Amino acid sequence: MTIGPRPPSVLQRTATAAAAAALALAGVIALPAAPAHADATTSGDVIANLWEYNWNSVASECTDVLGPGGYGAVWVAPPAESLKQSNFYWWDVYQPYSYDLTGRFGTAAQFASMVTACHTAGVKVYTDAVINHTAAQTGTGYNGTTITNKYDTPNWDPGDYHTSAECNDSDLIIDDWSNLSEIQNCELLGLPDLETEDDNVRSGIAAFLNKQIALGVDGFRIDAAKHIPVTDLNAIWARLNTTTSGSAPYIFQEVYPGSTPAASDYYASGDVLDFTYASRLKSAFQGNVSDLSSLESSGILPAANSVSFVTNHDTERNGLHMSYKDGDAYRLANVFELAYKWATPTIYSGFEWSSSDQAPPNSSGFVTDTNCSSGWYCLQRDTAIAGMVKWHNAVGSAAVTNWSTKSSNVIGFGRGTGGYIALNNGSSAATHTFATGMADGTYANVVDNGTTTVTVSGGNATLTVPAKSAIAFYDGAFTPCTACEPDDGGSTSTVSATFGEYASTTSGTNVYVVGSIAALGGWDASKAVQLSSAGYPIWSGSVNVPINTSFEYKYIKKDSAGNVTWESNANRSATSTTSALTLNNSWNVASASATDVTFNVTATTTLGTDVYVVGSLASLGSWNTADAIPLSSAAYPTWSKLAIVPRSTSFEYKFIKKDGSGNVTWESGTNRSYTTGTSSGYVTADTWK
User: Fold this and answer.
1) What band does 170 get if pLDDT is binned at 50, 70 and 90?
2) Best CA proximity match to 48, nearest among 36, 64, 32, 34
3) CATH no. of 8-394
4) Which of 36, 154, 159, 326 shows a CA-CA span of 20 to 30 A to 195?
């Protein structure tokens, strides 16, 4: 959690709570002589903060999502070996035991492989560097290191730490938050404070960071930077090697708001994560988004010296900023961050939690692979966020233009003449005409992956913006016209076709749809349309296809090496009209022999637990709980999902619950049974037993 002035009674909590509160100061720095900055180009400067993903999962995400999606970098959790608590709290990794790179998220070899995979995908890697302190608690680390004296560790001797003499406080604890000497020389809630003014310590820290640079790491987020003097930081940066790309490492640090030291004190050593920016977004998206018209004069840090964020692992838990629990308003705040021209944006992706100390899904403390349908909140995979990353890259450095405030809940603005966005934070849809400054033509709405389109005529667009959502379009994806009619919410030449496919896959393999028309790649597997695994094992996505057109299609799988596997059934066929088209299928089950069943079950759950259906058919997971179909809680306590099954077939099924750690609970009683006929639209109405 971030640390700032707080009452002495809070500072005297137990070691466990104190460490949790102390451990996640975040910020941003670059080298003093030649600061390195994220590239604000169409290659992408957006940073994905995949917090506490294990190394294998980061590698897969770089390959499958971040690289193809246009992200510039991935920011990962601390790689050093750390304290291993019996309760496996998330903050264990902010108490370093050794600078060995085998730890909670995987081995040193897996770490190196992850960096290589991300580079191959065109994604830079920034790691969380905990260099202000070491562990407050003794015990055994995740790689077997045992510590019995917190001032005597594999990397440091007792003489490498500040004492009460340097701290000028007999208890060694920071209890005067206006005293710079205490803040930077005393112990942050019992964490042994390294003597960073000492050359030996500076060299040791630099060696730890250089070990990562040698493996390809491109930069670092410096934890608890507020507690290290700028002079010491600059002396450490001067000892760092260039990265494998030949540039200075991009170092970013946190300086929590406060007068001593101030964020501006750290501009000389690099960028600073902007907590005030995130606070302003929380205020706006929990109040009036129209207030964002004065964002730049609201006390946020200068764009040239900062990195923006909506939330992080500390502030989503302590309530300072928004979290995934704010639902659509939280997603919309991230959409705004990607749209507005300011500092380098970050998109935070973490795990679901019901208590502030809760660990990520793990096995004996070691973090298990990220499963975006159970226990994790993968914002980077959200359709709106994915579309806005591309929008952000397309508009580049163009200034904010054509700002329009339609109400306290509805705003719109452009980025030069390259893109326009309208946001609605209200509880119902809103229709307004916006002066976009865009060329006349028909554009795809990237927020819903082109399911809807926008027509600009005379530079204006009449938009019906859904509640808690946005419409965004840019000039890289549109059809010019010379006599456009005002927008009616749809295109006159294309219609959306939504594809849903049940398909189980191995890690690193994705599902695509390919077909006989150009919109589906013209049977060219390299041009197939990738589907989203957000509802795994259901893969889905939307494509604009020509109206009144018959076409054929199939699904394919591609692994990380690019190997392609085609479905074995005959080509599927469909015909578009002037209405949206929905096609639900199951891998290797021919459309003509398939039907649909919507499974509904009434079931109460605790926060972080979801309900699934699994059964005797391949399309129901063949009783494998890993391939069970996640049900939607949109009508809670009723959970539901449509599945594709064979016609005229009897099968068995059951409902299960999975908690945030992946633990499975089966409903009691005998298997349920169902028989389909030759029609479609079958529905169950079950109650958890």
Assistant:
1) confident
2) 64
3) 3.20.20.80
4) 36
The Cα–Cα gap between 159 and 163 comes to 9
Q: Tell me which of 52, 187, 254, 567 is the catalytic residue.
A: 254
- Collapsed DSSP state (helix, strand, coil) of residue 629: strand
Residues in the chain: 689
Q: Which residue has the tokens 């199939």?
A: 554
Instruction: Identify which of 27, 2, 23, 25 has the alpha carbon closest to the alpha carbon of residue 250.
Output: 27
If one looks up domain 494-588 in CATH, what number appears?
2.60.40.10
Locate the domains of the chain by residue range. 8-394, 398-480, 494-588, 593-687
pLDDT of residue 523: 87
Annotated catalytic residue, options 169, 182, 223, 475: 223
Instruction: With CA atoms as reference, report the closest residue to 558 among 587, 524, 536, 525.
Output: 525
Helix pair angle (199-214, 230-237), 10° resolution: 50
Statement: residue 658 has pLDDT above 70: yes
251 φ/ψ angles, rounded to the nearest 5 degrees? -110, 125
pTM of structure: 0.68
In this structure, what token pair is assigned to residue 666?
Answer: 């089966």
Beta strands 400-405 and 410-415: pairing type? Answer: antiparallel
Question: To which H or E segment does residue 387 belong?
Answer: helix 383-395
Q: Is 254 considered catalytic here?
A: yes
Report the alpha-carbon distance of residue 163 to residue 187 in Å, rounded: 9
Helix, coil or strand: residue 552: strand
Mean residue pLDDT of the chain comes to 88
Radius of gyration of the chain (CA): 26
Query: Averaged over 618-633, what is the pLDDT?
Result: 87
Distance, in Å, from the CA atom of 665 to the CA atom of 657, rounded to the nearest integer, reads 5
Q: How confident is the model at residue 679 (pLDDT cuts 50, 70, 90)?
A: confident
- Spatial CB neighbours of 682, under 8 Å, sequence gap ≥ 6: 595, 596, 597, 598, 674, 676
Find how far residue 675's CA is from the centre of its chain. 41
156 φ, ψ (degrees, to nearest 5): -135, 145
Q: Which CATH superfamily is domain 593-687 in?
A: Immunoglobulins (2.60.40.10)
- Whether 347 and 46 have beta carbons less than 8 Å apart is answered as yes
In whole angstroms, give the CA distance from residue 607 to residue 35: 44
Q: Are strands 419-424 and 469-474 parallel, antiparallel or unpaired?
A: antiparallel
CATH of domain 398-480: 2.60.40.1180
Contact of 545 with 494, CB cutoff 8 Å: yes
Q: How far apart are CA 626 and CA 609, in angstroms?
A: 15
Nearest-5° Cα angle at 610, 470 to 605: 110
652 is catalytic: no
Distance CA(420)–CA(416), nearest Å, equals 9
If one compares 479 and 409, the residue with the highest pLDDT of the two is 409
Q: Name the residue among 422, 487, 418, 474 with its Cα closest to residue 444.
A: 474
pLDDT over 50 (residue 354) = yes
- E strands, 1-52, are 28-29, 47-50
* Residue 35 neighbours by CB distance under 10 Å: 19
Residue 278: name the closest of 224, 225, 315 by CA: 315
d(CA 388, CA 514): 24
